[in-house]
Amino acid sequence: MKNSRTKIIIGAIISAALIISIFVVANYKNNQVGVNSDNGENSTVQNSNNKPADEGSKTPELPKEPEVKPDKNGYIPNQTLPTEPTYIKEILIANKRYPLPSTFAPEEDKTARAALDTMLAAAKQQGFDLVAFSGYRSFEYQTTLYNNYVKRDGVDAADRYSARPGYSEHQTGLAFDIGEKGKEDLWLTEEFGETAAGQWLFTHADEYGFILRFPQNKEHITGYMYESWHYRYVGTEIAKEIKKQDITLEEYLGVN
Ligand SMILES: [Zn+2]
Fold first, then answer.
1. Long-range contacts of 178-184 (CB under 8 A, 24+ apart)
2. 58 CA distance to ligand 1 centroid (A)?
3. Is the whole model's pTM more than 0.90, yes or no?
């Protein structure tokens, strides 16, 4: 009689311990997903899939400095694309050092599009008929585009003006290439930056939350030559700060 009561008590203790540990583990995993899902719409889906169990026990940390030095074109040799996009100071970054997952497909950002439309309307008021001729690009489309540029100009030249698949800011849905209607011959040229329309854009973009992403003489920081046409949405507060300090997004985020 005494013996079986002891067995029942021991059994109850073991069961309770099991239930508590299952609860703790489940709760911890949920928290992990919660932390990462702040980083973007897609990450929850990715976190719940195919993650080794021990991944959950790692504390999320800021991206480390790459251990391998970039090659002459700014890329880490044989780098594999990550499974999560990188956010620093809540800003999504995509450059030669911080690529995006091939599966990252957020489509065009609605806030960025609304800000763009407002900016283009304001430009029109001033007599400048600006148009965004390129915006969101999927990983697949960037692959086609980059490969065509490589065929035309070779890898070294293409790497100065076009991103390899996974490395393009256009895949974030936050970047637009802008030009003037009726002056298509100046699209994707430095000269656009010297036109009155290009100057207006450069002067006022920050008021609408955009930055000129690849300014002159910053190729050693951004990894790209001057692109008078490529604007990135970061929100007005950050755009104004970056403009005021005359710095790049990399410098603002401290990853230059
Ligand atoms: Zn662009």
1. 178/130, 178/131, 178/132, 178/133, 178/229, 178/230, 178/231, 179/130, 179/131, 179/133, 179/229, 180/128, 180/129, 180/130, 180/131, 181/129, 181/130, 181/131, 182/129
2. 36
3. no
